[in-house]
Amino acid sequence: MKKLALHWQIIIGMIAGLLFGALALQFDGGSQFVVDWIKPFGTIFINSLKLIAIPLIVASLIKGVSDLNDISQLSKMGTRTIGIYILTTIIAITIGLVLVNIANPGGFIEEATRNNMMESFSGEAGSRIASAAETQQRGPLAALEDVIPDNLFAAMSSNGNMLQVIFFVIFFGIGIILIPQEKSQPVKDFFDGLNEVILKMIDLIMLVAPIGVFALLAALIVEAPSVDVFYALGAYALTVVLGLAILLFGFYPSMVKLFTGIGFSQFLNGISPAQLLAFSTSSSAATLPVTMERVEEHLGVDKDVVSFVCPVGATINMDGTSLYQGVAAVFIAQVFGNDLTLGDQLAIVLTATLASIGTAAVPGAGILMLVIVLESIGVNPAGIALIFAVDRPLDMIRTAVNVTSDATVALIVGKSLNKLHEPRVKNWDDNYKPQK
Ligand code: ASP
């Protein structure tokens, strides 16, 4: 019998998890059962993916950079990648701003709902505002300083330091390019072999992905706030979802078709397991190993491009987050009755671009950086309390968008550098097979 495609297996796991969570809520002690006995499998699944992220970046990026014949190729790839990342982010925020100004979701919020939300979520809002204040107090070049680690092992000890690891690895790769080939070859071969091992490990982890997402979604349901708040915030949530859907189903597939000729279904077939995983985990960092594997093996982008574009994207390119920050900022201003000028809206484009770059690739990071966007336009940052209740589901969708955007840019950059080929895995559902 033909095996069910991976993305279907994951979708079935997700639906079963949602139903199981909903069922557990009907029984006394059901939620606690899910938290004690089901949720840990979700955590184990996410942890095993996160575990792979740093070794994967190291092995594949060293191999990737050292395969480039000269340093000018690296800088060409770097400038293109960053340029396109910023461009797609600005387009995403603009789509968000146009939608929120037309839909005016703030107009749907009654005074009572507003006060209720502000009261219920003031604690959470306060702690996010305090963390954002810490980020803001640092000097203008702090972000640059942060990229250069003073100790490699300290940098590798946290997935939050991905850019530091990338910096070291590129530096190391440049060293390899500059030494004689007879010395560099064994080093390259080692990392090449290591990379194959790690890709295989990702395949093994993905075998249990349906169980992992089942556990994650069951836990999400039993821990979710009550349904009433979803109704109150419906117009706002729908505006964000509509914007994200335009990116997911319109903007990215069109860009991919336009620049690489790859059709909608091939693109979606190739990348969907990563999207589903991003949706289930709300973390682009945890999804990164799968994103890289799919873009390389199933969409055909060369390793040297994937190993640079995807990890950098997971850290700085967050179109879904920036669109959401744009919509949320205007929504909160609308609820508070602040009139935003065109200048304010442009300030949102600028700060949301920077804020999304600074957003960590973990669940709920986007709402923290939203504080900075709100402050830049003079709106009370305590307003984030208004949107807390629906943040998690929106985080799930925006993370799927973030990951899709990284894959899109990897394809475009790959094509522009002539590094896009027939995928190694032709049948996109097959497992990864090392080259002979
Ligand atoms: N969870 C998102 C990500 O990992 C970031 C955010 O918007 O909160 O991409």
Quick take:
By secondary structure, this protein is mostly helical. It is built from 19 helices and no strands.
Structural notes for this entry:
This protein is mostly helical and about 425 residues long. It has one domain (about 5-415): Orthogonal Bundle (Proton glutamate symport protein). Helices cover about 80% and strands about 0% of the residues. The chain contains 19 helices and no strands. The protein has helices at about 5-25, 30-65, 70-105, 110-120, 120-135, 140-145, 150-155, 160-180, 180-205, 210-225, 225-230, 235-260, 265-280, 285-300, 305-315, 320-335, 340-360, 365-375, 390-415. Helix 2 (about 30-65) crosses helix 14 (about 285-300), helix 5 (about 120-135) crosses helix 18 and helix 13 (about 265-280) packs antiparallel against helix 14 (about 285-300). Aspartic acid (ASP) binds near residues 363 and 364. Aspartic acid (ASP) binds near residues 282, 284, 398 and 399.
Q: Report the total helices.
A: 19
> Judging by the overall fold, what is the CATH architecture?
Orthogonal Bundle
Number of domains: 1
Helix fraction by DSSP (H/I, runs of at least 4): over 70%
Task: List cofactors, ions and other ligands.
Answer: aspartic acid
Low-confidence stretches: 432-436
Q: How much of the polypeptide forms β-strand, as a percent range?
A: under 5%
Report the count of strand segments. Answer: 0
Shape: globular
Structural class: mainly alpha
Named CATH topology: Proton glutamate symport protein
**Overall pLDDT metric:** 88
Kindly report how far apart the N and C termini lie: 28 Å
CATH class: Mainly Alpha
**What is the radius of gyration computed over CA atoms, rounded to a whole number of angstroms?**
22 Å
Order of helices and strands: HHHHHHHHHHHHHHHHHHH
CATH H-level superfamily title? Sodium:dicarboxylate symporter
